């Protein structure tokens, strides 16, 4: 292919699309990146279209019609297994949130049913989580102490749950999953690790049987509270706690060694609760300094819609707790659903999950449940127990119903120290040293973001730690935007390829021409930088040319293939570059502008200014054109001399 | 060039650079994009290096040694012209800031001298500005009223000036010019326009001779204050004001028609002041309801370092005023310096300007000056009067010195209404209808950002308007980042070029292969999107293939030429895509990864996973390889059949 002979490939200077077209397409790309109804475009039947849309929004219609007994067998087993985990976890995390333990049991009854209808993950098991429980407690205790006014405190917890649900639903309906994307994996890793440490420290209260404790969550306050109240330490409690903890950790160890025996660790918590309860009942443990959960009322969830309060005096606390936990619960739930779906080569729709989580928390807040999401431990057990569909959540829900109706009082003998052991054991798994080390090895900045979350949570407070990390990650994102990479291109020998000369040192210069590739969108935050950078490339090239005695730069080719968009300030920067280059008698040429960029350059008349003949489809074409005019201008000089 | 015959061009799999190398190079790119000492690398003499460095940081050493009388002639004329503007502007804007008018005159004496030493713009004229004056007044009046405790009020203004200076110096020293880049032109346009409207409305006080007024700056409060105090309106004041305003606007009109007569409008304010003063003196104007400036003390700036106060009770006000005005003054001053430099094909270093502005405000705050920057009107007059170097600022400074020593008392007869007319006339020029219309025509989002600043300033408050606009611009930047463009590539006929099929509809598909170009950095905020987008490209391609009955997709080529960097979450997304593709029996190949991306993919072992043989330098090479293996695998099938 000799470029001299082939007809010049033309740049497509189509008239710019109208604002509405571009806006619509951008809107669609931003909020419907998965194009859910793409395949319905050519569907003529409206009834079928409607059916498809309903099936899309309410996933239960998608899988229930094909459900059969063969699948149910698996779901039954998985459902019973996660129910056995839900009882101890429900009681434990409710204690962590400072609310009556029964609410923890209620929370595993209603929300799983809602999720079954609207949720799109087949493996997610609904339940309460430790981190969010602690955040709720920390936020609401700022306004009301559960010891002083439990009724109000619980009302505020329900209010926070409603707010969480509303936030999640809104995000889902307006397809703002994009916001959750800004909680990066590194942030979540650090945050979870930090929270796990905090929660473990908090369990010192239960392990040592302390009566007095701090409402602060940071590490220093908690340790101070533990050591200040040394007179309250009870060795009996500690001994029992360590025994339970050792048992739980052993079962984890078994699971790690033989993944097939995962069920051993899955049922360990309920065994701990049962054994602990029996022991407490038989040994009258409460008389020996080992506190028990205390009275648990029989019966299903009472309605709590009348307990929701928007009293201006307190609303700030549930508002803060609601918004933060909504985001964290979403980030955690969606990430977990996704990672299990990928193992089975399925896809999870983040926006649908948000709607499901939102509805489940809204309905939950009306039926005496507090915040639920898809916790990692429960979901992993569900997955490993071989669940096939969302039906396992229904099975768990029915188990909980039976528990609430008949067995609840039996759990009132559960020793608090057993709950602390269960929480601590669960938390150990959440500190991901390996992942942090992997981050350190592969990306130092991601590691910093992770550590900011970790140390922020441990030493300042949970919300500050999270904020710190998110802001750091945002600054990084903005730095990416503000300092886009650009590089000088050289010709790879024996080819028509032009590549970064730094990356491919054997790429050769082009006599009299400087080719620069710009990256990323060009706009206000980086346009000054790009202008400086282009001029620096020119300056550097000129100084090299002066050193080598080779000819001056006559042309600069800007490869815009990687520039996805440009704004007004960007175009102005280009105009400035054009003017600066003109004063140096260098001609600017554009190569391969993409559709959005070309449109903006046309509307702003930049193309008119440099001329359509200065825009090329490839660097090769541009160089060919430059060489031609360089030769012809030199030829003219010679001709002039001859005439003289 | 036939790709079948040429040896395969190799991707450079160099060992990744060390973290420190990458970090150093990123740091340099972020903070020293202009590479100021690049040319000193090969300089052996340390003394000469030091000299160069000093010349770089203190620009006066750069131009003063070559200064001569020929240049001075021009600077003298320009200096006298801007001094004639500095006197009325100094008095007017000081009134706007609620401080004694003499401080306005002081502020044109010391800061210009400092700028002459450290400033890098040859055309910038130093002076006070209306917008910042109003912000200072609005912020500090929240804490202290100038009517009740003028001494404290003025002290806080000096403190705010010091804080501004410190912020500017810090930004300059740490080369954080990048922060100012986040104030986009659209924001500044809207903000300036809104502020101009507010300031004009505020002048109703002076024009109507009102005694009582509001301390709020928003449009509604100001209009209410004007109409509530109708009983204070004085027609004499209004008549005189309108006469002055008409005169000033006429001179502007003359300038617009005949740009050569710019000096008519340049000296119009001082004429207004002189004529107004004479009139007030002769007609005893203050007896007829026309207030005058009042006593102005002879003598140069008294020291004010002892008046700086960091009293915790008041500090929040000067802190807020200082930080906001620092940023706005920088954005305005640097943008103006830049735009005039470009007219003369010179370049301005933003970081150096920040240092100069910072030093000038710090020294200013110690010598009874308040915030100064490079105002547009004064700089334009300086430029048009033919200034050659920073020396014109020295001339202005000397003129101000003489004024302060001998003429100050004469200006005490200046009617306030004349000052209002001067301010209003100056403000009319700052509402840039054309620019807003241009934004509307070319970029709707930029227009929204501009309007957010404009309406926010007019109807809420100056700082909220600015914030609103900056946040909107940031959201846009983050959206750019979160939704990078990607496109399907097709082969341009008769070439080896691959381009966006949407942009070049004649580009043809490649049988069994899908080539997708990704844009922008890939990282946590967009990695989920990119994964979805790639899978959607695949799904769409498969459905088209099914419709046409053509063969299935066997390969997907990801063109990474436009991907400038990738983070851990991005790599994880790639892994997910790889797994999803494997389940569909599609092979992933990478084309032209750039140096940073290839390094990250190597460290994280992604390259190991897909194999080096799946990475290519160009799409052509990749297709060649795919075709070869497609053919060979089919050939093998045939062979198997034959054997059977």
From TrEMBL, chains A, B:
Superkingdom to which the source organism belongs: Eukaryota
Bilayer disposition of the protein: Multi-pass membrane protein
Gene3D superfamilies: STAS domain
InterPro entries: S04_transporter_CS (IPR018045), SLC26A/SulP_dom (IPR011547), SLC26A/SulP_fam (IPR001902), STAS_dom (IPR002645), STAS_dom_sf (IPR036513)
PANTHER family membership: SULFATE TRANSPORTER
Organism: Cinchona calisaya
Annotated keywords: Membrane, Transmembrane, Transmembrane helix
NCBIfam families in the record: sulP
Taxonomic lineage of the native organism: Eukaryota, Viridiplantae, Streptophyta, Embryophyta, Tracheophyta
Transmembrane intervals: 99-118, 124-140, 152-176, 182-201, 233-250, 262-282, 321-342, 354-373, 394-411, 417-433
Domain STAS: 503-626
UniProt entry tagged with the keyword Manganese: no
Compartments, as annotated in UniProt: Membrane
Official protein name in the record: STAS domain-containing protein
GO CC annotation: membrane
Principal place of residence: membrane
